[in-house]
Structures are given as structure tokens and as C-alpha cells.
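Record now logged underneath.
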Amino acid sequence: MNQSNIISLFQSYISEGKNAFSVGGVGAIAEFQDESPDITIIDDKYFRLQSHLGQFSVKFNGEENALAYENRAAEKGNWQCGLVFTLPKKTCFLHSHEVLTELGEDKEASDPLARKHLLFDLGTGIPNMRFCIRTDDNDLIRMLREHEGTSIIAQEHPALEAIINASPHRIVTSKIARIEVFQKIDRHRTPIGPHTHLLPKLIKLRRLVASNIPISSDQVPQFTVYPEHPLIDQFGHRIKFDQINFDKFQLTLKKYGCAKFYKEKLRLRAALANRVKPCDYTPPSSKIERTAFEIELRQQAYLNADTDYINEWRKKKRNP
């Protein structure tokens, strides 16, 4: 892909503060979100978003690709959307430890005062990322050193409880992206703003990305952008359908999405515009086309004024 287009695409999403970003793999991930982060363009390939609760930075290397996707959401009538930036598999893997490992001082820390603090790779073993904690807490350092070389995905590993109690900075990196989370760990709920998830049962799968995101086998995810959703605000609450946000991502999906997925969306959209009866529509044959069909039908509930007609299609889908 044209690298100037990839970087311009990224810039179009960081210019609006209600988008969110993540770095990580399945079960081990950091997310950055802030309505009005401080944005620093260090050079034409290096960008940083900062808030008092965390930081997200990306340094493009010229080999990136992008994949826009939509997926089903559990909530009735809703859907997910995202934009994954990837690198070719042959160039992008990190040396990701499979056991708790001390890495030394964090020379890349965004805060110069933290560059003497120690990094510990928690050892997820997911090869496109590292999930680390950074600390100068002597008690926590001593405890982590005692358990160095052990696997944190073991049941009830004592290091995890110690990390929750101390709530150190979490540092999650890929080859080109980095999220630092300063916000304290919440035992009971996911906090608003920068946060992390570390789920040992899912880490065991060693999966780079969720199975329902159609990334090419020769590409590896580096970070993901979650555009401002047309139905859900940053707090997870339903809002009135936002046509502007919807249209913006559809343009991205058209250019950077899976061609087969988008083609099925267009096919259904044309059929609905021409008042085709559900029984006269040839069903999609592949999994990705069936997903596109269902999502387009969910979206048409907000785009098509003839709700009775759309409900006829949705009823047909439930009762083939």
C-alpha cells in the first residue's frame, strides 16, 4: 500500500479525540482513549498522543498496511468496527518472552523521570507484542525477581495479585506502536480512559488477533484504531445514530476493507434500494459474506426509512 496514504489515514483518525487505540494480542492488550489528548507530530512518521492517564505512540517504518473491518456485536442491532495497521509477517515479530523476565531500565519511557525505572516482561508469549510493567517499587521488584522465569499464565500466579495491588505503569508494545498506561488498575470494572486487560486463560491461546478479523496470513497486527461509533459513545452508552461518523468509516471500509465483504454489502444495499423480496435474493455463500449481509441489514435499520420492509428481511433471516 502507498505509505503516504497509510500515514494520512492514521492522521485523519488521530485528529479527532473520540477515537480509541489498542496494542496487544488476545487476552493481553492496552487501550488508549482520551477526548482531547495532546498530539505531538515528532516527524512525518512519528506521532504521540498523551494524557495524564497514558500515552500512545506510533513510529511508522514504511512497510505498513491497513485493514478496515466490521463485525457482529453481542448487543441486538449493533456492530463493531475497527482499523488494524499491520506489518508483513517476515519483518515484524518481537522477541516475546514466555516467562516473567526482567528487561532493565525503560530507556523509551515518555516521562524522563521514569527512564531509570525497571521493565518486566510478563511473558505472554504472543509474538507480535510485549506486555510489560514498569516500576521503581522495591517491594514489587523483589517479588517479581523471586518469580522470574515462571509463567504468569499459571493458575493464580502470585505476581498478578502483587501487580494489581501495586498498580504500576503498564507498557504494551509492538514493533511500531507503544501504549503506556498510568491509570490505576480497577479490580471491579474497566475504567474510562487508558487501561489494560490481562486474561491468562485467553493468553494461553497465543493468538495475535481475534478470529473474526480477516487479516491476511502474511500480515501481523501492530495496533488498532477504533473509530467513533455511530451508535455508541465513549462511555458505552447508546446515542442517536450519527450519520457523519457512519459515512466516514464506510469510506475507509470501501478503500481498506476486505473486497468480498464490501461487495456483499453493496449487493444487499442495491437489492434493498430496488425493493427486491427476501425470497428472491441469492444468499451469501461464504462466512465473511454472511457477516457482511447481517451487518448491512443491521445498519439498514438506521438508514432505510421503510422499517416494515427491513423488518421483513430481518424476519426472513431468522426464519430461512
